[in-house]
Amino acid sequence: MYKIKVNDTHSFDISKADLDKLDAIETNTSNFHVLQHNSSTKVSVLNSDFNKKNYTIKVNSNTYNVDINDDLDQLIEALGFEVGATKQVNDIKAPMPGLILEINASEGQEVKEDDALLILEAMKMENVITSPRDGVIKSVNVNQGETVDKNSLLIEFK
């Protein structure tokens, strides 16, 4: 079960069965044609932050910010914990298989939380991988144009 929050004002529960019923066709990179109740809708993904599970989408001419929380996210919230509040993140791994399009970090570079470190293309979508914390880059373990598997080590922090 996924809890979807739109523009921090509306919440919806969506099951995996609901997703299986979704009639969406990708027309080109980040653009989709969705049919629902015999009605056609154009949807574009304008921005995606895979780590924070936050997306900006455009439906027809309206733009929405969408947050997606899975069962684990909901459990962590229910228990009153913040993700990463006590964990020191020392490395970034690929959240999915994909192609490294751009690298914005280098060894020894000082970065701030949420700085864009690299762009990973997966399923024809560009996913910006951001820094989970302030820190210094110990090593960048990938090259631009390289294909990576899920959980491949991308960047290490000092």
TrEMBL record:
<protein>
    <submittedName>
        <fullName>Acetyl-CoA carboxylase biotin carboxyl carrier protein subunit</fullName>
    </submittedName>
</protein>
<keyword id="KW-0092">Biotin</keyword>
<dbReference type="InterPro" id="IPR001882">
    <property type="entry name" value="Biotin_BS"/>
</dbReference>
<dbReference type="InterPro" id="IPR050709">
    <property type="entry name" value="Biotin_Carboxyl_Carrier/Decarb"/>
</dbReference>
<dbReference type="InterPro" id="IPR000089">
    <property type="entry name" value="Biotin_lipoyl"/>
</dbReference>
<dbReference type="InterPro" id="IPR011053">
    <property type="entry name" value="Single_hybrid_motif"/>
</dbReference>
<dbReference type="Pfam" id="PF00364">
    <property type="entry name" value="Biotin_lipoyl"/>
</dbReference>
<feature type="domain" description="Lipoyl-binding">
    <location>
        <begin position="80"/>
        <end position="158"/>
    </location>
</feature>
